[in-house]
Amino acid sequence: MKRKPWLLLLLLTFMLSLVLIGCSNDEEEPEQSEETEEPGETKEETEEPTESEEPAESTGGTLIYARGGDSTALDPITTTEGETFRVTENIFESLLTYGEQDTTIQPNLAKEWDVSDDGLTYTFTLEEGVKFHDGTDFNAEAVVYNFERWMNGDAEQFPYYTMFGGYKGDEGHIIESVEATDEHTVVFTLKRPQAPFLKNLAMSPFGIASPTALEEMGAEEFNQNPVGTGPFKFVEWRREERIVLEKNPDYWKEGLPKLDEVIYTVIPDNSARLNALMTGEVDLIDGLNPSDIQRVEDDPNLQIIERPSMNVGYLGFTVNRDNPLSDPAVRVALSHAVPKKDLIEAFYAGYAEPAKTVMPPSVEGYNDEIEDYAYDPELAKELLAEAGYPDGFEIDLWYMPVPRPYIPEGEKIAEVIQQSFAQVGVTANLQTTDWASYIEQATAGEFDAFLLGWTGDNGDADNFIYTLLDKDSIGSNNNTHYANDELHDILIEAQTITDQEQRNELYKQAQEIIHKDAPWVPLVHSTPVVAAKKSVSGYVPHPTGSEAVTNTSISE
Amino acid sequence: MSQPAQAKVNQPMKKEKVSSPWRDAWRSFKKNKIALVGTFIVIFFIFIAIFAPLLMPYEPNEQILLDRFEAPSSTHWFGTDDFGRDILSRVIMGARISLMVGFTAVIGSIIVGSLLGVVAGFYGRWIDTIISRIFDIMLAFPSILLAIAIVAILGPDLQNALIAIAIVNVPLFGRLIRSKVLSVKEEEYITAARAIGMSNFRILTHHIIPNSISPVIVQGTLAIATAIIEVAALSFLGLGAQSPDLDWGKMLDDSRAYFVQAPWTMIFPGLAIMLTVLGFNLMGDGLRDAMDPKMKQ
User: Fold this and answer.
1) Full residue range of the structural domain in which residue B121 is found
2) Residues B215-256: pLDDT tens digits?
């Protein structure tokens, strides 16, 4: 009995000192370990490939890219999800590509193209001497094979192919035929003109896959072992952990890529990922909490790289579920209950602007005349009462488990919305699940209300409005299952005509309709940032959210 | 739980004015300064928990997003968290929830555990075998793992976390009571009671239970400390309180991402957990020393 108290006191002191040590260390630690750990680490990583492969020409080293979520597939056409494209951009190439930081059309596998006057025939001349990673030749037949494969599929297999209006046999499908007229010439014949056709072709999902590999492996296997023409070859994929790519030594662009190896690793927690960067475990991270930007800027070894903004983060209401959200009046009322400005102030550190419509202002056809539903809980309450819900109701509100460029902290934002809905009498139960199921369930329309967002793939208004809210896109990207025939007619017309002025007018009308029906509360257009070591150079983030690291290099 | 037992034993003692185990215990407890400090901490937190609504300077769930991550100041004594919520108010509200969960879970497991333990110890034979084996099985799991499994089955929320912790602690009390009952059962006064034809039920309620309960009080105090930690752990893992509910563990979880830029979001709920647990442990240790006849000077 005499001894015990002393022991306890000792323990207390010990615990207190632990707490104090813990606090002071946190701030010093990064700098210390940066000096001690980083050089060792980088050397190790770079030496490995150098010694084992081509000691003579190798200068590139390894880039370790940490992100919040794993890819859901590696055959890009099978998904609509950005973490997949981020990787497959390095493995596959589309016929066309975009400018370095914009969405202008640039040649890629097709070096030249010619459009007929009626906008119905596109003739592409392909690069010669390009080989797939499995050694087979890239040629016109390969292009035809890929398009035949896609157009004979369905929305479940190849969700993004809806960019071409549907599948073979569908009324909306715009491609009449794809033909190889000689070894290096492909002719696309369309049923009706599609204004964003070239922009669509340049999208990541339409990367050309090796027909031989597809035949040999079958679609399932190919999805795990992709074979394309890109600057990097696939090496291995350990789910939820890492994807390893190695340099394609026979890449058709001379002298590229600069790196020997790229590793995409997954660190789900935003602060853990930043810590990994600060301690030198990884070279580049995305999904930085905006509140941490200052920390990175203060670190002499790190840099912030801004990605040009072309996205929207939104709160979606699934409109065909048996609950009050199926009533547009209720959705409008709730639109008045979301404090967007505060959200941006708190969770984006100024790297975002409030959204009032589906697409960002940088995209042509943006309707600036739309007056956003102002944040006004009192008005929201009144409107809810008018709609017949004076006592509110209960819904499930889903938030994504991984940081997205448009919503870096889903849970936090969901909590704010939960709180502000509570003020108008609506109880929102927060729910989440893993990322792959999240997308799947959202697509199936299983969520009452959900957070999600979209990064434009090609810079065209069509890729926002048609892709996200047309009735054709239900089952691919229209997760609200909102279907409006008036809107549909406008969007189809806008696809068909090629005069940009006229198209812009139509998209402005479309935005009015969506604004009125409010299937979404558009939240933000963010400027995503990535953080990297100062030694990383040549990394140019693309507004579409995914880019190959062909020109990226890392110095000692 | 302790009240009726105490009254029962105290009655004959008042007349005789001789020393009783309870009075002795109190006397030695009073002398134990450390235990008194612990008791004081416990009472302090109970006071806070009871009067939480009066003490909170702000509504604990009120988000003022423009005031997020304010350092401790005269307006927000403990600072604000990532939603601009007042941490002092949340710690106070958390005291109410954490203590309530701790107490309820432990009282629940004492009731169930004691019942099972008494039945096992008193009736013996196959009943004892079955109950004891079930306890063994439950004790074979690490308690937090078992709690996680139970919450996973019931679904994550604070009430289910409470139930899980109550279940996890049942064998602790069950075994304790059982072994005590086993030894008390052999005492001569029980044989005497049997000899004069007292019914089993009366022997149980009047003699065996009152004489077996003292270790449970000690164990109960210590178990509250453990329960508070376990609730916090479950909430920290996202299996306890779900927003907008809060408790200390959830506060720690919420602030995990910001502990470098805003350490106060983590320090205060952490300190609250540490102090409460320390209080209960000190008090429990004091009680044990005071009540254990072997420790008598």
Assistant:
1) 45-62+74-295
2) 888 889 999 999 999 999 999 988 888 878 888 999 998 888
Exposure class string for B34-73: b at 16+ Cβ within 10 A, else e = bbebbbebbeebbebbeebeebbebebbebbbebbbbeee
| Residue B15 within any structural domain of the chain | no
Task: Check CB contact of A343 with chain B, cutoff 8 Å.
Answer: yes
Cβ of B257 within 8 Å of Cβ of A339? The answer is no
A324: nearest Cα among A418, A395, A427: A395
* B35 occurs within a structural domain: no
Q: Is A295 helix (H, G, I), strand (E, B) or coil?
A: helix
Q: Which of A301, A280, A285, A242 is nearest to A44 (CA)?
A: A280
**Residue ranges of B 39-98 with Cβ closer than 8 A to chain A:** 61, 63, 65-66, 68-69, 82-84
Contact A346 B83 (CB under 8 A): yes
pLDDT tens readout for residues A75-98: 888 888 888 888 999 999 998 888
Per-residue pLDDT at B278 exceeds 90: yes
Number of domains in chain B: 1
Residue B25 lies in a domain: no
Confidence class of residue A32 from pLDDT cuts 50, 70 and 90? Answer: very low
pLDDT tens digits, one per residue of B156-168: 888 999 999 999 9
Inter-chain touch A15–B261, beta carbons under 8 Å: no
Residue B75 C-alpha, separation from nearest chain A C-alpha, in angstroms: 20
Q: Which residues contact A392 (CB under 8 A, 6 or more apart)?
A: A384, A424, A425, A426, A427
Q: Are A447 and A396 in contact (CB under 8 A)?
A: yes
Residue B260 distance to chain A (closest CA, Å) = 6
**Nearest-5° Cα angle at A539, A138 to A309:** 100
Which amino acid is it at A375? Y
Q: Which of A283, A287, A247 is nearest to A264 (CA)?
A: A283
Is residue B53 situated within a structural domain? yes
Q: Are the C-beta atoms of B156 and B236 separated by less than 8 Å?
A: no
Q: Are A418 and B257 in contact (CB < 8 Å)?
A: no
Q: Is the pLDDT of residue A223 over 70?
A: yes
CATH code (residue B170): 1.10.3720.10
A33 touches chain B (CB under 8 A): no
Q: What are phi and psi of A302, to 5 degrees?
A: -120, 160
Residues of B in contact with A339 (CB under 8 A): 65
Alpha-carbon distance A394 to nearest alpha carbon in chain B (angstroms): 14
